[in-house]
Amino acid sequence: MKLKFIGFFTLCLLFSCNRDEQKDNTITFWSSNASQEILFTAYFADKWNENHSEKLESQPIPEGQSSEEVIMAAVVGRTTPDIYANMWQGLVEMYAKSGVLVPLDTIEGFTDFIRARSGEAVVKEITSADGHIYQIPWKINPFMTIYNEKKIAQLGLNTVPTTYSAYLKAGKDFSKDTDGDGYVDKWIGDTEVKNIWHQRLNNFYPLYLAASNGAPLIKDNKAVFNNEYAVGVFNFLQTIYREGYFAKESNTVGSDKFLAGHTATKWTGAWDVSYLERYKEDDFEYNIAHLPVPDDHRGVVYTYADPKNIVLFNTCKNPALAWEFIKTMIDESGDLKFLELSGQIPRRQQIKENEVFQEFLRENPKIIPFIDQSNFVYGTDNCEVLIEVLDIISQEYESCVIHNKKTPAKAIADATRAVDILLGNF
Amino acid sequence: MHVRPKKKRSIIPYLLVSPYLLFFLVFVAFPVLFSFFLTFHKWNIISPMEYSGMDNYTRMFNDRLFWKSLRNTLWFLVIHIPLQIIFALGLAVFLNSKIKFKGLFRSVFFLPVIVSGVVVTIMWQQLYGFNGGVINQLLNSIGLGRVGWLTNPAMSMPSIAIMATWKNVGLYIILFLVGLQAVPEHYYEAAEIDGASSWQKLWYITIPAINPTIFMVIILSTIGGFSLFIEPYVMTGGGPLNSSLSSVLYIYKQAFEFYHMGYAATLGFAFAFIILIIIVIQKKYIEKKY
């Protein structure tokens, strides 16, 4: 603990020390430290620097316990970069309220560009409570079900079940003790059980959005998730764990259960395609479908977008110039390059219909279901205390879903009450 | 009349202590005072502080997780300290006897102390695995049922305490060895002449003689126990059902996940006060016992 405090304040000190080194006309850019994104940023930085006197310096975000912690340290030390790409959408509202982000809608042409690229619904989603826009919707990884085709075929099914009852039936048929030691060792799926707020973005939240057609958790500063959809998701997951269809163990223990064939499905984002392609055996065949939904669900199925966006910090001396650079990264050719390098989905509408992306899609058919799904995604609510909201839900999730200590209705009601108390405090 | 010459004040002593004094002021005194100041404020680091009076203290007394984390930490200490003393003292007595390869054994027992806490924790997480963990596989192979070492709320803290004991026992073996080697040999010779058994020598000579070492081990284990963080953070995240949520992990979550700096500082002061009370009690009842 002491080390963490010292580490955090050392980061603050370090960032404080190099402030004067920033050159007035240079734009500084921090990308995530994923190798593909470093390559992507370097490519566009080089292109920019060839044609502009105002240079762009790109670097991956400095090492730290988490990118959030590093950004926070930089904000405290007022040594933030001009541009940061990879900001989780759920954190933007807190920084916006603290006044450290540039309101981008004040830059001429910004909103029109974003509306044309991402659509009106996205513009609405990223607009903050004060009416300004502080983030550039950049990339998403829609949560879907990836399934092992051979394992599902063994159940006599052509595709993975996509309703609660069919999924539970498949769970009953698939999950079993194969070595006769008295314990289940094959499960229909697997998702993290730890009571950590961001883990609920990988299970509860995508399923809630799928069931509710993208309904919010928070609206007008009130908790609005005490509904049949949230209760239904808790009930569905509680049944899964109670009946032993998923392992009750953290998925950080042991090897990759999906690749090893111990599970038949996983709920994950588009990034997993490149991972699977890299590590799977040659005869491992997989496919992608939307998340399970209630049996009476009709129409399209939404999911969580897992959006990571670009922000400009108020230490940026020339926001208009920084925006000029960002536009080169997120126009059609930039988005194509991003797809090619990272396998993640740009938050752009009608990718599948756009001629620019056709060749890539022909060569990477596994990404197409994610592109289709990207038309039906939702990010996060613009709530300053979203992390605490998710933590409250996570507490109830663990109690109800994993340990069967409460009924789903009671757990959701308790979570709603706790969130309302929290929101009332602010 | 003899007049004593006025002593010339030298600046050198002040210069010599100034680096430490500066370090103390910047990294100890200022943070402590600033943290105390924070306990009366609401602050998320990036927004201006808001004065909140006694709100943080009121919240703390009504916070279910604060009391839970405190109970968990005390539960950890209740398991960990006796285990630590029994194993460390037992092994120290063993290593202090006339055995072969004494140096090798000492090195082996000390090895876990120098291994990174995170590495040890990840290794034990794999050992404790419910489905594929080595310990459960061993239990299975001898016909015993699997144990939810980290998945059963009743077992998570004892499992962490066992691991922490394994990690730290080498350090306390060294402390006990120092204590044991300071016990005069003629005490044992006299006891042998009187026909004392090994157990009687341990109970009536060794333990009273190394009482200050035992007290020091208890104090160090208590302070170490209250700073329990890496193990639950990496292995369980504080779960299941907050059964392994330690006091420091809870402070960390408040400070660096929710950015409640004022509340985290309040919790920090409360835990420091509780540690102080426990150590005073230990000093009063344990140190004077023998």
Main features:
heterodimer, A: 426 residues, D-Maltodextrin-Binding Protein, domain 2, 2 domains, six-stranded mixed beta sheet, 17 helices, 13 strands, globular, B: mainly alpha, MetI-like fold, 13 helices, 2 strands, flat
Question: Which stretches of chain A are poorly predicted, pLDDT < 50 over at least 5 residues?
Answer: 17-22
CATH class of the largest domain in chain A: Alpha Beta
Helix-strand makeup class of chain B: mainly alpha
Number of helices of chain A: 17
Strand order of the largest sheet of chain B: 1-2
Named CATH architecture of chain B: Orthogonal Bundle
Mean pLDDT of chain A: 90
Describe this structure in words.
The complex is a heterodimer of chains A (426) and B (290). Chain A is built from 17 helices and 13 strands. Chain A is of the alpha/beta class and 426 residues long. In chain A, strands 2-1-3-11-4-12 form a six-stranded mixed sheet. In chain A, strands 8-5-9 form a three-stranded antiparallel sheet. Chain B has a single domain (64-285), classed as MetI-like fold. Chain B is built from 13 helices and two strands. Chain B has a two-stranded antiparallel sheet.
